Amino acid sequence: MKQSTRFTTTVALIVALGGFLMGFDASVISGVVGFIETEFELTKIELGWSVASLTLTATIAMMLAGPISDRFGRRPVLKVAAALFAVSAVASALAPDFITLVIARMVGGLGVGAALIIAPMYIAEIAPAEIRGRMVSFNQLNIVIGISAAFFSNYLILELGQSASEWAEQLRLGDLAWRWMLGVETLPAIVYLFALMFVPESPRWLTMHGREEEALSVFEKASDAQQAQADLALVKSSLHAEAEQQGLSIRQLFQPAMKLVMTIGISVAILQQITGINSVFFYAPMIFEQSGIGTNAAFMQAVLVGLVNLLFTVAAILLIDKLGRRPLLGLGLVGIAVCMFTLSYGFGSANYTLTADSIESLPADVQPELIEPVLGVTYDSDVAFRGALSAAVGIDTFKRNESQLIAAAIDMNPTLILFGILGFVASFAISLGPVMWVLFSELFPNQLRGLAISFAGLVNSAVSFSVQLIFPWELENLGNALTFLIYGIFAVIGLVFVMRILPETKGRSLEELETAQAGRGL
């Protein structure tokens, strides 16, 4: 490996740690929700807030991070993001109440939004053209690795907390498990903050601020002297072109000429979230517990979710330029629909019956005499079962022991649920996950691309926030079967849309797309 390539790779890997922290911070909450619901006595909407609050502030940070980095630099913003990750981790772990936890999560959301925007921007600005795609992909790959690491970390802490290890007992990994799950992120956040000390400022930002000699020095480390001069000239030309495009208005996104691409962009942005991906990523152990396998097995299966997501994200990176965007989306949406309908069938066919034998293994605080009125009664839905048991033993007691009560009563095939969830994650990771952002970069015209992507990203985040917020409420009030059925129906609608309207964008210009679709009424 050439020295210049080694330099670029090292810098890209350091900066891409922001993607790892983003994925970790977003998904670590999946292992925490069951603990905080009972400790803070949360309603389902409050539980949703504990998860979705991060997305809310991340969206705000995504809108502000670019302009702030233009003024103060890419590296300072990344340092602030690293500090926010660390502060959020510590504050979340020590949170004495629900409000403090939500505020701490929102602080982390600011770091998530900043890292999501600035890390790939920085890498793209420093990497030579011939390896830029591979370098930028480090960030997306690290996001997926961060998600997997969060699932594994949660499972490891849970297992260690239940072990007989003296050091685990001294650290109170058992009774403080959820606090350790949130707090462990402090370590990679501090590593990221210090590693950024060895990263130069973006050469494009240096050029923007008249520091061309410094910019040239950075370019020379990333390539050779001749190429560095050429890269600097391209940056200056790009900055001049951008200066001529100042004053763009969001109204320009809704001109007749933009109708096709904005319809596609907004629809795909909504579709990516409304099929339920963040319900799975942020509530995976909760979903698996609903199949009656118990808490530990649920956390272990959540680890599999992360691994499958990683594997099929890599597959998407390898296939997207070979198969094209439209085939991948179509294939993925078929898989998403089939898996969601499978989950709906699996939960819908379950029934719940508590017997005298099955309640013998229940925790001591579930008093047998309170359960007697429902012994031998078969419930054909999780909603009816939860309602009856909550009335019998009390809401708080039921919440504390929900996993054990479901495991004692349920009659269903948990393997079907596992394969449904893993198939859904695989289908998403090879299609809607990566393809959406590729489509955005290809559909929108150069002069409006930044504005259009920002708007579509805002729509995407708003839908994501809503899905995360109401998912616990949906499970409690609509039930598992109906909730996943709704996601499956959205996937079918999306499939019809993609197959009917979305053209293949690989290697085609906007003008070609407009001409090809002109007769379709868009």
Write the layout of secondary structure elements.
Layout: H1 3-15, H2 17-27, H3 33-39, H4 44-72, H5 74-94, H6 98-126, H7 129-161, H8 166-170, H9 177-183, H10 186-195, H11 203-208, H12 212-222, H13 225-244, H14 259-274, H15 277-289, H16 295-323, H17 325-348, E1 351-353, H18 368-371, E2 378-379, H19 382-393, H20 395-400, H21 402-409, E3 410-411, H22 414-429, H23 432-443, H24 449-477, H25 480-501, H26 510-517
Antiparallel strand pairs: 1-2, 1-3
Helix pairs in contact: 1-6, 1-7, 2-5, 2-6, 2-7, 4-5, 4-6, 4-24, 5-6, 5-9, 5-10, 6-7, 7-9, 7-16, 12-13, 14-23, 14-24, 14-25, 15-16, 16-17, 16-22, 17-22, 17-23, 17-25
Please describe what this structure looks like:
This protein is an all-alpha fold. The protein folds into four domains: 1-199, Growth Hormone, Chain: A (Up-down Bundle); 201-244, GTP Cyclohydrolase I, Chain A, domain 1 (Orthogonal Bundle), CATH 1.10.286; 252-341 and 413-516, Growth Hormone, Chain: A, CATH 1.20.1250; 351-411, no CATH class. Helix content is 77%, strand content 1%. It has 26 helices and three strands. It has helices spanning 3-15, 17-27, 33-39, 44-72, 74-94, 98-126, 129-161, 166-170, 177-183, 186-195, 203-208, 212-222, 225-244, 259-274, 277-289, 295-323, 325-348, 368-371, 382-393, 395-400, 402-409, 414-429, 432-443, 449-477, 480-501, 510-517; strands at 351-353, 378-379, 410-411. Strands 2-1-3 form a three-stranded antiparallel β-sheet. Helix 2 (17-27) packs parallel to helix 7 (129-161), helix 12 packs across helix 13 and helix 14 packs antiparallel against helix 25 (480-501). The protein starts with a helix and ends in a 5-residue tail after the last helix. Mean pLDDT is 85; it is low at 517-522.
